[in-house]
């Protein structure tokens, strides 16, 4: 079985993503409560934080430890340019201490910890080692240390995404969603709002559930584990629950998700498509690959993303989520109905206009048909 071939990789990846979620939760709490200045802007004006670099460093360190540095190729989002600047010493110190605090907790997740503290140069090296450009042959990990960084800094939804690509095909997908809410209706509501509400609740349970999902190619199964809270006494192995896509195929009852920011996806185009296929509900606008998570868990039926012309989608923004949705019974293609191609390097080369993920063929066919029709008429 193909899924057994990668069982060690899956086991390590799941544990590492749990540890990464733990790290992110700590950093997010600090960011939201202290308004720390450790949020930087990248060249494209998107944010990057201590958590993005720290998760990338920690995952890189762990994968090298378990599989051997020379065997591990990682394609990931962040680089060390900002961190290496002379005026970034505070930022680098914050990353190094976050990585070390996180690694110190590794045994609680059944992972090894380093014998001694990791220094600045080792952290920088771990981050910059993730500069593989992937490609059609060999094994490559695709890592988005924090997906939806904008959601993360807003105290809202974000994800940690790790996938393994072997000879151009995604074979493992692991997705951590630390703020996934207890009730699907709450996906639509700003997380901080619930944080403040939950403070007044008597129970120790907060509003969010949090989960790590995973799937192996060809297994026809996707799994979900509850997140382990930092303050809980923790025992590994964590239990896993099988997840499955929704069985709703009537557009009138279906929920569709899309990015929050209209600069990331054309909201008016998707509104037109939604109308033409008979979707009635308001779109569920959620940051990050949590949208794929919602489809895989059966909390929504459709995810559409149409980036502006010229924007090239990156493999780490989709690999884990796509595999999990597919193994949970869903369908994911580009807007022309073709599968996404993870074999061409960092980008999803050849992507036709946008990405459509659905819980099943019936809804998917309708959306693809509507795209075809609207494209035809717009070209008349
Ligand atoms: N201009 C533009 N167009 C399309 N997509 C872009 C664009 N800029 C960024 N990105 C990528 O989108 C990732 C966030 O996607 P989301 O679906 O979470 O978007 S949103 O925050 O809900 O609007 C985000 O991932 P992270 O950087 O990991 O947060 C980006 O890779
Ligand atoms: Mg991303
Ligand atoms: Mg990211
Ligand atoms: Mg980013």
UniProtKB/TrEMBL annotation:
Q: Which residues bind Mg(2+)?
A: 77, 144, 147, 317
Q: Which cofactor does it need?
A: Mg(2+)
Q: What reaction does this catalyse?
A: 3'-phosphoadenylyl sulfate + H2O = adenosine 5'-phosphosulfate + phosphate; adenosine 3',5'-bisphosphate + H2O = AMP + phosphate
Under Gene Ontology molecular function, one entry of this record is: metal ion binding
Superkingdom of the organism of origin: Eukaryota
The UniProt record lists the keyword Magnesium: yes
Q: Which Gene3D superfamilies match?
A: 3.40.190.80, Fructose-1,6-Bisphosphatase, subunit A, domain 1 (3.30.540.10)
UniProt xrefs under Pfam families? Inositol_P (PF00459)
Q: Which UniProt keywords apply?
A: Hydrolase, Magnesium, Metal-binding
Please state the Enzyme Commission number of this protein. Answer: 3.1.3.7
What processes does the entry annotate via GO biological process terms? inositol phosphate metabolic process; phosphatidylinositol phosphate biosynthetic process; sulfate assimilation
Looking at its record, which EC class is this enzyme?
A: hydrolase
Q: Which family does it belong to?
A: Belongs to the inositol monophosphatase superfamily.
Protein purpose: Converts adenosine 3'-phosphate 5'-phosphosulfate (PAPS) to adenosine 5'-phosphosulfate (APS) and 3'(2')-phosphoadenosine 5'-phosphate (PAP) to AMP.
According to UniProt, the name of this protein is: 3'(2'),5'-bisphosphate nucleotidase
